[in-house]
Amino acid sequence: MKSKFNDVISVLERIANGLGCEIKIIGSDTEKWQSATVQVIWSSRDKIDDAYYGFVINEDTLKFNQDGITWSLNAMAVHGNFSNRAKTELSKLSWVDKDKSNLETIDIMANNNKSLKASIVLERIFSRLPLAIQKLQSRHDNRPAFTVKDEYDIQDLLAAMLVIHFEDVRSEDYMPQQAGASSRIDFILKKEKVGIEVKYSKSNLTDKKLGEQLSIDIQRYQSHPDVKTLYFYIYDPDKVIKNRQALINDFSKKHNRLKVQVVIS
């Protein structure tokens, strides 16, 4: 099944390269290798919104489609091009039974995998958080701007967004004691088994120090019974982090029992 999974990813990557975009796997079944959600990222992010696609493999059948949410006519046209090419090329895979497969109607958000749904929503929130902060700088009737001075301000804004999308959001959930000291994780999405840690990059925070912090947190949260997926959201408005992609690649993977995703914006 893993080879079929890789076939699908290879097709999507080839189409993305041809259209001048890239794909990012944001949720996948790494046990059975039967399903995944991919994010399509365009270079002109200010003009074209990202889109999310999902696929499900079952022996000789394949289901694939966009999640159905776009934000502009321009985005709809561009993503329609990607979607149509993907469906055409995926149908050519040797193991795909075209009569049984459905490349049209799968709805990602109807998937019963709560962690997968959470990944889609969180990726959208994180990618647009800087824009939300920018909008709050200019408020009605000259009211004070929402100023982001540290990670606590980010946590406040993120908390307001999370409760819109998730029913049970726990803030600063205490971790079991380690070496005589307890620690707190910023947010727990209880039903989805997702933990979120927020960090604010500052001028004195080097890539090495940040990596060390992530390593410590990953080890610490291995024992948390309500966290199967751990998100690190790193707010980096001044581009302090020198090599963002290296940090993402190094830590966005499975660490023992814990699946980790790093998002920087």
Rg of Cα set: 20 Å
Which oligomeric form is depicted? single chain
- The share of residues in extended strands comes to 15-25%
Count the beta strands.
10
Helix share bin:
25-40%
Mean pLDDT: 79
In what order do the strands lie side by side in the largest sheet?
Answer: 5-6-7-8-10-9
Q: What composes the largest sheet?
A: 6 strands, mixed
Name the structural class.
alpha+beta
The low-pLDDT segments are 68-74, 105-112, 177-182
- Span between N and C termini? 34 Å
Shape: globular
Order of helices and strands: HEEEEHHHEEEHEHEE
Total of helices: 6
Please supply descriptive tags for the structure shown above:
265 residues, alpha+beta, 6-stranded mixed beta sheet, 10 strands, 25% strand
Task: Summarize the structure in words.
This protein is of the alpha+beta class and 265 residues long. Helices cover 36% and strands 25% of the residues. The chain has helices at 2-19, 73-90, 114-135, 151-165, 207-221, 244-251; strands at residues 21-28, 35-42, 51-58, 61-66, 169-174, 184-189, 194-200, 229-235, 254-255, 258-264. It has a six-stranded mixed sheet with strand order 5-6-7-8-10-9, with helices on both faces. A four-stranded antiparallel sheet has the order 1-2-3-4, with helices on both faces. Helix 1 (2-19) crosses helix 2 and helix 3 (114-135) crosses helix 4 (151-165). The longest helix is centred in the middle third of the chain and has 22 residues, at 114-135. The radius of gyration is 20 Å and the shape is globular. The two termini are 34 Å apart.
